[in-house]
Design a protein that fits this description.
162 residues; 52% strand
């Protein structure tokens, strides 16, 4: 990660979110099915944010399941990260924060969380024969914030239940 240079713009920051993965097995199918994350940790980087305009970025979460079933129902939830809640999430850097959120849709209308506080989570069936399936996480920082120059980060935990 390159440091942010304040000489180019007075209010410029680099925002990065790291996803940490966890998986949990639930139900009687646990002995016949195995699911997990594929491809390691994927950072979501907004790049430079000036405050004059919003910033958007995406990353992917890849899920693979193996087993005797054709379909595996999954739930994929994201934590609030550095924030005390989802409205909004907060990136932190040098004692400052920057409001942002993560979404299930490109229109940024469905906050991806754990189902609390007005959030939703991904709930669907994985088709085992299709192999690894990819889900897009949409990140958005609204315009109008004036953070001091620096690097702003958050760590989000992705929890897979099957």
């Amino acid at each position: 990660m390159k440091p942010v240079r304040a000489r180019a713009l007075r209010h410029m920051g680099e925002a990065i979110i790291a996803l940490v993965f966890a998986s949990m097995c639930a139900g009687a199918q646990a002995q016949l099915i195995s699911c997990g994350f594929s491809g390691g940790v994927n950072a979501l980087s907004f790049g430079s944010y000036t405050g004059f305009s919003s910033a958007s970025a995406t990353t992917q979460i890849r899920v693979s399941c193996l087993g005797a079933a054709v379909f595996v129902p999954i739930q994929l939830k994201l934590s609030a990260g550095n924030a005390f809640g989802y409205s909004p999430r907060r990136l932190s850097g040098g004692g400052n924060t920057l409001a942002y959120n993560l979404y299930l849709d490109a229109a940024n209308t469905r906050v991806w969380g754990d189902g609390t506080g007005g959030t939703e989570y991904l709930s669907q069936s994985i088709v085992i024969s299709l192999g690894t399936q990819t889900f897009t996480v949409y990140g958005f920082i609204p315009a109008g914030q004036s953070p001091p120059p620096g690097t702003y980060t958050a760590t989000i935990t992705a929890t897979l239940t099957f």
